[in-house]
Amino acid sequence: MRLPCPICGTRDRREFYYQGAASMLERPVSGELDAWHAYVHVRDNPAGRTRDLWHHEAGCGAWVIVERDTVTHEVFGAVLVEDADAD
Amino acid sequence: MWFSGWRVLKEGLTGNKGWRPHWRDPDPKPVYDAVIIGGGGHGLATAYYLAAEHDMTNIAVLEKGYFGGGNVGRNTTIVRANYNLPGNSEFYSHSLKLWEGLEQELNFNTMFSQRGVLNLFHSDGQRDYAARRGNSMISQGDDAVLLDREGVRSMVPYLDFDNGRFPIYGGLFHPRGGTARHDAVAWGFARGADQRGVDLIQNCEVTGIDIQNGKVTGVQTSRGAIRAKKVAIVVAGRSSQVAAMAGMRLPIESHVLQAFVTEGLKPCIDQVVTFGMGHFYISQSDKGGLVFGGDLDFYASYAARGNLPMQEHVMEAAMTLMPMIGKARVLRSWGGIMDMSPDGSPVIDRTGVEGLYLNCGWCYGGFKAVPGSGFALAHLMATGRPHGSAARLRLDRFETGYGLMDEEGTGAQHNLH
């Protein structure tokens, strides 16, 4: 699997660290236990299209949101987290 | 139909014309007392123990494909009870005891082989941890032997003991661990359940779970609606999709775990040998193939196949540990879909819907759990109380933080196990 880093171009999967679902960018604003439990533990875990967070740690160091298919491993595209997430 | 040496001899002398199918192929009935979604090892074991231990025989197992076509046929067949933490420790200990009586109970040859599991260590600190874990295992009533370097050498002389990065200091040996023929385990439980009247229904995909006023009332399937007051979701690998039919979102992320087998070789590896530092473990099947695997590919996947980087990593670890393996040729590789939970431990529990039960989160350890998981879920469904061996396998532990079973001590978060 090769991933398209918006800065470096298409690179080997081994240059990236996988963090998990991109839902982790949506931090709860309140202190509600339910919201934090959902944020930390609960996942949609789709069989199909998903958005997840990868860290290009052996490359430019950017955090990247990759959209891909979990069943076919097809990669549709990637954007920088800093462009997608105002935080 | 009963298996015995006499029967095998007789059939062998009469052209093997007396064998019959091992289970019926019934159409689903409109109503059952309980329905189990998923005809893998855990689902079939649950059905078997519901019938055998609790006299619940008006039940059905619904399987989308064929029995044993999922992870129970895609693992590396290792059975062990070498866990450290309360919760996992008593559960796997109970499961191993069930394994030891399983062939007699099912009258089915699962080729269960207690050849021993050897976990290697490579530093003084790891030796201390191995000693502690061995003490936990012995306290639980299981067996563990702490071996020094020469003890390991007498058992597995072919390892690279003086490897520059991971010199072998010793190992923790678990003599009662071993392997079993994975397909036969699914078939044995299926046959046993069928003999007790359980309807085993293949090619029957569940498409919906019916819930009224907070109680489960049945399921919708590709072969019609089926009513039941008790429904169990036992579909590790697809848990998130089936649970979503009941409006639930789970603390599960699905990952792919690869395994490999070589061409058949003469007997050379007598035990299960694990090299934790290289994420590598290996055993030899009765056919002679070396069966080995490594770690997750480490990204969410339902592909049931992995990528080359992890294959390369596993091969490198194999060569690091046992250079002799370099001449063996890999025959094939495959991937299974793992239900990864945040703390790396499983769930057998009720849900927020009355009558709906959940069995999931087996991570990469589901095979050895098959009898214990079926026994505990059957107990929960039949009596309404968790079995003592599985009382801590709670779904709410992630929300409350109470009773987390984080064996690796890395934290209860996804991507850390």
Question: Which tags fit this structure?
Answer:
heterodimer, A: 87 residues, mainly beta, Folate-binding fold, two-stranded antiparallel sheet, 2 helices, 38% strand, B: 417 residues, alpha/beta, FAD/NAD(P)-binding domain, D-Amino Acid Oxidase, Chain A, domain 2, 2 domains, eight-stranded mixed beta sheet, six-stranded mixed beta sheet, 25% strand, globular, Sarcosine oxidase, delta subunit family (chain A), SoxD_sf (chain A), sarcosine oxidase activity (chain A), SoxD (chain A)
Explain how this protein is built:
The complex is a heterodimer of chains A (about 90) and B (about 425). Chain A is mainly beta. Chain A has one domain: 2-Layer Sandwich (Folate-binding fold), CATH 3.30.2270. Chain A is about 15% helix and about 40% strand. Chain A has two helices and six strands, in the order E-E-E-H-E-E-E-H. In chain A, the strands form two sheets. A four-stranded antiparallel sheet of chain A has the order 3-4-5-6. In chain A, strands 1-2 form a two-stranded antiparallel sheet. In chain A, a hairpin with a 3-residue loop joins strand 1 and strand 2. Chain A is globular. The N and C termini of chain A lie far apart (about 30 Å). Chain B has about 425 residues and is α/β, with parallel strands linked by helices. Chain B folds into two domains: about 200 residues, FAD/NAD(P)-binding domain, CATH 3.50.50.60; about 150 residues, D-Amino Acid Oxidase, Chain A, domain 2. In chain B, strands 5-6-4-14-15-16-13-17 form an eight-stranded mixed sheet. Chain B has a six-stranded mixed sheet with strand order 8-2-1-12-19-18. A three-stranded antiparallel sheet of chain B has the order 9-10-11, with no helix packed on it. In chain B, strand 14 and strand 15 form a beta hairpin. In chain B, helix 2 packs parallel to helix 6 and helix 2 crosses helix 9. The longest helix of chain B is centred in the first third of the chain and has 19 residues. Chain B is globular, with a radius of gyration of 21 Å. The mean pLDDT of chain B is about 95. The chains are: A mainly beta (about 90), B alpha/beta (about 425). Chains A and B meet through strand 3 and helix 1 of A and strand 16 of B.
